[in-house]
Structures are given as C-alpha cells and as structure tokens.
Amino acid sequence: MPDNSAAIVIDIGTTNCKVTCFSCLDATTLGAHKFVTAKQISPQGDVDFDIDALWQEVRQAIAQLNAASPLPVRRISIASFGESGVFLDEHGEILTPMLAWYDRRGEEYLATLSEADSAALYDICGLPLTAITLPSKCAGCWNITRCVIAAACAGYMRRKCCSGG
C-alpha cells in the first residue's frame, strides 16, 4: 500500500541545521529550512549549543514545513553527526549546558577511570572512551553544574520521601 504521507527530517549540524520535509512515497523534497546552529562561546573558548535558540528555530521550521506540506506529516526523524545532550529535571527543565560534540571538558574524568570502569562504560555505550564520547561529556557537565544537579536531586528525593511516593 503506498504511503501518501510526509516525514520531517531534522539534521542538527555543528555549523548549520537543516529541517526538511520529504514525501514518504517517493522521497521528493517538499520543503526545506536551513539556519546557523546557535552557539554560546565562553571567554575560554568552550562552545555550548544555545539549546533555547536552537529549539525555537527547529519548532518554527517544523511548523512552517508542516503547514506548507501537501501531504500529512506523520513522522519526524532527527539526525546528528556528533552526540550532544543535556541533563533535564523531572519537569523537563534544562540543568546543564549542551556541550558541543567535540568538547573535551571531560578529559580529567577519563584519567580517573580504572580499566574495569572503562570496560563497563564501553559495554553500556558501545564506544571506546575518549574526551568527546558521551560519558566523558556527561562528566564534564557534571563538573560544571554539579551543585545545580545535586540541588535538583535533593529536591526530588525530598518530594519522594515526604510524599510517600
């Protein structure tokens, strides 16, 4: 049975982001939107993606492509070359910066790992540990914002313990 729907593909790139709508029937392009990836650069040269600006641009692009598509959009796919992420609290609020995929702020953490720890993390994520793989980036985020995360965790635990839930 032919698929007469559309898919929106989001490609978050280091330099640019592309949001494109494709026909699922024949993969023709139905529309596209491209914008510069928003970044925040510290005086030390550390690069964090500006997640709020990025999210607003992506939302606007999705809305525009969905409105202009001659076919109903039934799928959204996200692609990215490098891994980046943020820690969220239980309400979806962002707790940490979104480090660039090439960020190396977790290097000190890697030096503290035993071979057993490295092997265990490899078993979990399937990648050899380097300064730019996700576990070391998470450690970098942790070192940057550990007080914020600890406070959020303490508040969560307090609610769980005090509410009986």
Automatic annotation (TrEMBL):
SUPFAM superfamilies: Actin-like ATPase domain
Alphabetical list of Gene3D superfamilies matching this protein: 3.30.420.40
A Gene Ontology biological process term: carbohydrate metabolic process
Ranges where the Carbohydrate kinase FGGY N-terminal domain occurs: 7-132
Swiss-Prot/TrEMBL keywords: Kinase, Transferase
Entry keyword annotation includes Iron: no
GO molecular function, one term: kinase activity
InterPro entries per UniProt: ATPase_NBD, FGGY_Carb_Kinase, FGGY_N
UniProt similarity note: Belongs to the FGGY kinase family.
Name listed for the protein in its UniProt record: Carbohydrate kinase
Source organism (scientific name): Escherichia coli
Lineage: Bacteria, Pseudomonadati, Pseudomonadota, Gammaproteobacteria, Enterobacterales
